[in-house]
Amino acid sequence: MTRSPALRDHIAAGILSSAAAVLGERGEAASMADIAEAAGVSRATLYRYFPNRDALLDALTDAAFTDLSEKIADAKLDTVPVEEAIARLTRAMIAATSKYRALGLLEKSPEQHAQAKSRLVDPFYALFQRGINDGTLRTDLPAHTLIAAYQGLFQGAASQVNQGRLGVEEASAAITTIFLDGALGRQKHR
């Protein structure tokens, strides 16, 4: 039986969604059998789509980068004020992080790090640099320092989401307000 490309894509997406959930709950202890069961497919079907665990993890990483890249593009960060852009970026990132939390537990290849830089880090840096240049963000600190501070807040809040202590919206609001209260340019403080 030959499946249409749309059906194959739908089945693969379902498997990846289930894999993200199972790996997020069980980490490296999750087996391919666990993933197949959660996806509602046989192990043979799982292996037809993803011949081994590495292929599944690579596809899951690609899906996560694509999902987050699309969320960032949809947020149209360059069309809104910096403060709103940071709030939009935070919501997109915390939602993707909660969905693909297992990827934070797994090793990433140098190729995956390069992909992350071009698809995620560069737009991030551009936003923060724009905020510095227009005076919305502090001008006494370079973009990489502000990004590092933001990432620290983000990682702390993301761990709270992963532990079920904060919801996605609650974490997004906390990160955004705490960061912006400390990162606003002098003329923006009340």
Task: Give me a quick take on this structure.
It comes from Plantactinospora endophytica. This protein has helices spanning 5-26, 32-39, 43-49, 53-74, 82-99, 110-133, 143-162, 168-183. The protein has 190 residues and is mostly helical.
Can you characterise this structure?
With about 190 residues, the chain is mainly alpha-helical. It folds into two domains: about 1-50, Orthogonal Bundle (Arc Repressor Mutant, subunit A); about 60-190, Tetracycline Repressor, domain 2 (Orthogonal Bundle), CATH 1.10.357. About 70% of the residues lie in helices and about 0% in strands. The protein contains eight helices and no strands. The chain is elongated and about 60 Å long. About 30% of the residues are buried. The mean pLDDT is about 85.
Named CATH topology of the largest domain = Tetracycline Repressor, domain 2
Q: How many domains, in number, for the residues?
A: 2
Q: What structural class results from the helix and strand content? A: mainly alpha
The amount of beta strand, in percent, is under 5%
What's the number of extended β-strand segments? 0
Give the CATH H-level superfamily of the largest domain: Tetracycline Repressor, domain 2
Largest sheet composition: none
Return residue spans where pLDDT drops below 50 for at least 5 consecutive residues. Answer: none
Fold topology:
Layout: H1 5-26, H2 32-39, H3 43-49, H4 53-74, H5 82-99, H6 110-133, H7 143-162, H8 168-183
Main traits of this protein?
0% strand, elongated, 8 helices, 190 residues, 2 domains, mainly alpha, Tetracycline Repressor, domain 2, Arc Repressor Mutant, subunit A
